[in-house]
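A quick word before the example. In earlier lectures we treated sequence and structure as two separate objects. From today on, think of them as two lines of the same record. Here is Lon protease 2 written that way.
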Amino acid sequence: MFHQADLPDVVPLFPLPGALLLPRSRLPLHLFEPRYLAMLDDTLKIPGRLIGMIQPNEVPGRSGTGLHCIGCAGRVTQFSETEDGRYMITLSGISRFRIEKEVEGFTPYRRAKVSWGGFERDLGPQDADTQFNRGAFMDLLARYFDARELQTDWETLKDADDELLINSLSMLLGFEPEDKQALLEAPSLSTRRETLVTLIEYALRSGGETEIMQ
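And the structure line, produced from the sequence above:
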């Protein structure tokens, strides 16, 4: 269990388009670039073992860091090495953060001084969505999966609690990076669910090629 006072002022950053980590959720990652292998090696030496997932924000002609200002830090809770030196890791989402400034140094990966203020709820118990119409949501989700000819374990989805269901779908459905950022920045579970519904409905209307990331 983390408290805000325990969270570090500086975190290593892993910019990855479309990869969304949310508090109290888990994200599997495959590390193979030398700089991120070095990042993992350094992270495992620190008690908190936190890595900050962040969305790139590259806009032609715009100056700045090329990163969105809000990300989510996850603790390395599982890792295994392959025979060729790559790593499969799992990050467990701890808290969102806001980048204050990047930190210069000798590491091959990026780091930033961050603020955890405004995200106190991330460290608390599961969020609730009292207005969640689960039946209508599952009907919409079934239409989406049918339209994309996708398969899923419906019993697992039906048994999942509200936060796990909404957060898992937010992370797994293959929306655009900017849409993922909107899901990350949603201030509450109900707002995230409303955003998710809007994105699913838009995908159904547009007939786009949105898919599930395996």
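Notice the following. The first strand starts at residue 10 and ends at 15. We will return to this example when we discuss secondary structure assignment.
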